[in-house]
Design brief:
about 325 residues; Rossmann fold; two-stranded parallel sheet; 13 strands; about 45% helix; binds nicotinamide-adenine-dinucleotide; binds 2'deoxy-thymidine-5'-diphospho-alpha-D-glucose
Length: about 325
C-alpha cells in the first residue's frame, strides 16, 4: 500500500514499481487534498495490478478496512502536507494532523495488521539548516532540529517511528531525502512553479538573494532508493537519500529560463521567506553502501532538468488542468 500515491513522488514511485515488478499489486491510499492528482496515474488507472482507495491516514478505521480488504503486506508512506510556504503563511493544523498524528495512525495499523514492513518517507529538513561556508552535510546522526513548521511536523512522525520500533519492535524504516524534481510535481514548489511562470512569460519570484542551496535529486532516483530500502533496509534505522547535487536557487532559475529560451529579465528578487533555511546537503554514504546507485548523478543534472522541463511542455493537458484549478485551490487553502 502506497499512502499519498496521488502526489508528486508517490505517483512517480507507483509508476516505477509497476514497471519493475509485474507480479506486485499496489493499493494507492490517498485523501486527495489539493496536492493529490489522479491525473498523475491516468496511464495505469485500468491496470489490474493497481487500485485506488480514497482515505485519510488519520482515520485508523478506514486504514484497517483497506489493509484487511487487500491483504496489505508492505506499506510506504508519502502522505503529507508538504509545502513549506503554506506551513508559514497558512494554518499549521493540517500539517501536524497528517505529518505527525497520521504517521502514528499508520504505525498502529502496521501493528494491528502485522504488516511486514513500513517505510516512512521523510525529509532532510528535519535536520535544520547548514551554513554556506560550512564543510559539513547532514548524516543520519545529525541532531533533529527543524526550523520550519512543516519540518517540525514531519520530525514528529519520524520520532514516533523510532519510539514504536524501540518500544514495540514495529518494523519501520525512516528516510530523509533532499529536494526532488521530475514529472507530476504540483506547481507550488520552486522548479515546476518557475516552469509554469516562465512558460506564461511571467516574472519568476526568487526569494532574498537567491543564494540558498538545495541538494536536488530526481524523483526516479528517490523511488529506486525507496525500492531498495523496502526490500533490503534494516528495521528501526534511518537512511539519508541524496545525490550530492548542491545548487543555489539562482543557478536553478537561470537553467530553467535558458532551457525554455526565456530572458533572464523574468528573474525578479522578492522578499525572503521568513526563517529561510540557508543550505541543505545530504551525506548518503549509508544507502550507497547498500548498493544504491542513482541514474541522475550531479553530472547528469542538466539532462534531468532538461527532460523535466520538456515533460511539462509536452504534457499540456496536465499543465492546463492544474493551471485552471490554481486560483480555486489557493482560495480554498486561504479560506
Ligand atoms: P505532495 O504534496 O505532492 O503529495 C502529498 C500527497 O499526500 C497528496 O497526494 C495528498 O493528497 C496526500 N495526502 C495529504 N494528506 C493526506 C492524508 N491525511 N491522508 C492521505 N493522503 C494525504 O508531496 P510530495 O512532494 O510527493 O512528497 C511526498 C513525501 O516525500 C512527503 O512525505 C514529503 O515530506 C517527502 N519529501 C518530499 C520532498 C520534495 O522535494 N517534494 C523531498 C523530501 C521528502
Ligand atoms: O528538502 C526537502 C524539502 O524540499 C521537502 O521536504 C519539501 O516538501 C519540499 O517542498 C522542499 O522544500 P523547500 O522549501 O526546499 O522547497 P521549495 O520548492 O518551496 O523551495 C526551494 C527553494 O527555492 C527554497 O530555497 C525557497 C526558494 N523559492 C521557492 C519558491 C516557491 C523561491 O526563491 N521562490 C519561490 O517562489
Amino acid at each position: 500500500m502506497v499512502a499519498g500515491g496521488a502526489g508528486f513522488i508517490g505517483s512517480n514511485f507507483i509508476h516505477y514499481m509497476l514497471e519493475k515488478y509485474q507480479d506486485y499489486k499496489i493499493i494507492n491510499f490517498d485523501k486527495l487534498t489539493y496536492a493529490g492528482n489522479l491525473d498523475n496515474l491516468k496511464s495505469i488507472e485500468n491496470n489490474p495490478a493497481y487500485t485506488f482507495e480514497q482515505g485519510d491516514i488519520t482515520d485508523l478505521a478506514r486504514l484497517n478496512e483497506v489493509i484487511k480488504k487487500h491483504g496489505v503486506t508492505h506499506l510506504i508512506n508519502f502522505a503529507a502536507e508538504t509545502h513549506v510556504d503554506r506551513s508559514i503563511h497558512g494554518g499549521i493544523k493540517d500539517f501536524v494532523m497528517t505529518n505527525s498524528l497520521g504517521v502514528q495512525m499508520l504505525l498502529d495499523a502496521v501493528r494491528a495488521n502485522e504488516i511486514e514492513r513500513m517505510v516512512n518517507v521523510s525529509t532532510d529538513e528535519v535536520y535544520g539548516a547548514l551554513g554556506l561556508d560550512e564543510d559539513r552535510k547532514f548524516t543520519e546522526n545529525t541532531p533533529i532540529m527543524p526550523n520550519m513548521p512543516y519540518a517540525a511536523a514531519k520530525a514528529g512522525g519520524d520520532l514516533m517511528c523510532n519510539a514504536y520500533w524501540v518500544t514495540h519492535k514495529t518494523p519501520v524504516i525512516v528516510t530523509h531525502c533532499s529536494n526532488n524534481y521530475g514529472p507530476y510535481q504540483f506547481p507550488e514548489k520552486l522548479i515546476p512553479f518557475f516552469i509554469f511562470k516562465a512558460m506564461a512569460d511571467e516574472p519568476v519570484p526568487v526569494y532574498g538573494d537567491g543564494l540558498n542551496v538545495r541538494d536536488w535529486i530526481h524523483a526516479i532516483d528517490h523511488s529506486s532508493a525507496l525500492d531498495l530500502l523496502l526490500h533490503q533496509g534494516n528495521n528501526g534505522e534511518v537512511y539519508n537519500i541524496g545525490v550530492d547535487n548542491e545548487r543555489n536557487n539562482l543557478e536553478i532559475t537561470k537553467m530553467i529560463l535558458s532551457i525554455l529560451g526565456k530572458p533572464e529579465s523574468l528573474l525578479t528578487y522578492v522578499k525572503d521567506r521568513p526563517g529561510h533555511d540557508r543550505r541543505y546537503a545530504i551525506d548518503s554514504t549509508k544507502i550507497m553502501n547498500l548498493g544504491w546507485q542513482a541514474k541522475y548523478t550531479r553530472d547528469k543534472f542538466a539532462k534531468g532538468l532538461q527532460e523535466t522541463v520538456e515533460w511539462y511542455l509536452e504534457n499540456k493537458d496536465w499543465v492546463e488542468k492544474i493551471r485552471s484549478r490554481m486560483n480555486e485551490i489557493n482560495q480554498h487553502i486561504k479560506g
